[in-house]
Structure formats: C-alpha cells, structure tokens
C-alpha cells in the first residue's frame, strides 16, 4: 500500500488516505478501537518516512484550523537518495526559502516539555521537524508516535548526545552512537524516521558527514537559533529569536523541546509569525532534488569559533570549503546573521 500511495500518479489517492487517517486520529466524539489506532499510526509513520505528505491537503486542514492559526504554507521535499548539508551557521548552503519563510526545528526531545510544545503546534496548525536523541526516544516512545501522528517529521540527533561531542570521539565510536540513535528512534516510531540528522553542538567531522550523506542522510545545521539553552525568561527568548528572524528574514530556526521556556514561549511566537507575515514551510523526505541555495563568497562558519572556544583547541576544525551545488541549481544566499 505504501508503494502504491507514494507513486506520483496516485497523488489524489494518497491525499485522500492521509486525510482519512488524520480525521480518524483527531476524532473526539468516540474512542477509536486500539487495533485500528495502531494500524493508523503505523501507516501514517510509514507514509511519512516514504516522503508522502505529513498532513491532509489544505481544504481538509482549513476545516480544523481557525483563521488565526499559522498553518503550513507549503511542503518541500528533501532528497532521501542524495544527502547534503544545509544551514548557514555551519555549512555554506541552506534551503532555498522565499522571503519571510521559516522552517522550525526542535532538538533534544522527547522530554517533559514536549507535550506542551506539541499542544502549541497543534493549536497553531504548525508542523515542524523534531531531531530526537535516541535514548530519550527509548524512554518516551509514546511521544515519538504522537509527534508523527500529528504530522511532524521525525529525525535523528545521535543516541547519547555526548557532552564531549561526536567530534572528540573516535570515528568508530561516533558512528556507533549515530547508528544506535537511528535504530532507537526508528524502533520508538515503529517505522524508519526521515533520513535527516543534526550533529549535537553542530560538532561534525568530514568523515562523519561523508558517511551519513553517502547513505542518503541530509545534515541540518541552522540559519538562526533561539539560544534557549541560556538562562532567560520566555519573553526574553521570544524577543531574541524574533529580532534574529527579522534580521535574517527567513531560514531554518533551531529550538529545543527539552527547554521549558521554549514550550512556554511557543504559542506567542507562532502568533507573532502570523502577525508579522511569516509563512511556515514543512520538510519531508521525498524524491525531488533538495532545493538549496549557496552562501555568498563572504560566508564564514558561525559555529566553528564557538565549538573551539567551548571544547578547546583539539576540537578546532577548518570550516567546510565553500561549495556551489550546481547540480541542485543553487543560487547565492545572503550571509546568515550572527546569533
């Protein structure tokens, strides 16, 4: 069934199936039989991993989302066959987004604040990508399944999120931690998650990037972050991330659903995005080439100086060489604003 629904000529059929699944999962008038619910969740996870739309079409969504909800403006496919690395704070290319378009990503979950994050996203009819720590997914598989069932993309963030980072581990140990995390998240989800990976602390290595991209994984950095690991109030975080977004005008935004301040701040942030004319873009794995845009010639890594300062000289690594991905039709992007 998954193979049938993922064929391009069956687009109307797959939208109908996805709509039916979402309506089933959202119904509150009567309980859904447990076996039927399990089947719906398994099918939804499999379709999501296969690159099928992670949500019903716009007409169906409008029936459940109010006019004030942010919603999703469009879905972009990330090539699951050809890996790359995006996010201007770490890599010299990013997703080709239009002015005032944002992709929201959340790291380090699932965790105790994750249900509050999911509630806010559901109210705003927003769909995002969660980069999960494998051991957390093992501990809270119900939250992994809930996030997928609500239309979010599930991705990977290592198994242990080591304090010394994957960069300071041996290559074999780092690969083992990555693969253990992939296995743990897939098991918690009940299906293969998206082939998306984010390095803890953005501390990659050329060998690890090459290994993952050769397997079809796209590596995600970010274009701006909320600094929600810092001690601040939800209002301070809101003001900070909005100021950075207004400077960049678009981009991949990094939050942590493990942070209570982010969970508290998120409803107002989604309202502000709507108020300020921003549109939300949702990423899913697919068969189309990943839409990327190359950095300008003055690009420099934001993350490498931070990594070197935090971890010491032995963690220092030259930023990736500037690459123009002509095979993806990349254009030149403006330099990312500093965090």
UniProtKB/TrEMBL annotation:
The keyword DNA-binding does not apply. Residues 100-281 form the NodB homology domain. PROSITE patterns: NODB. GO terms for cellular component: membrane. CDD domains: CE4_NodB_like_6s_7s. Residues 307-339 are annotated as: Disordered. The keyword Metal-binding applies. Keywords: Hydrolase, Metal-binding. Is involved in generating a small heat-stable compound (Nod), an acylated oligomer of N-acetylglucosamine, that stimulates mitosis in various plant protoplasts. Belongs to the polysaccharide deacetylase family. This is Chitooligosaccharide deacetylase.
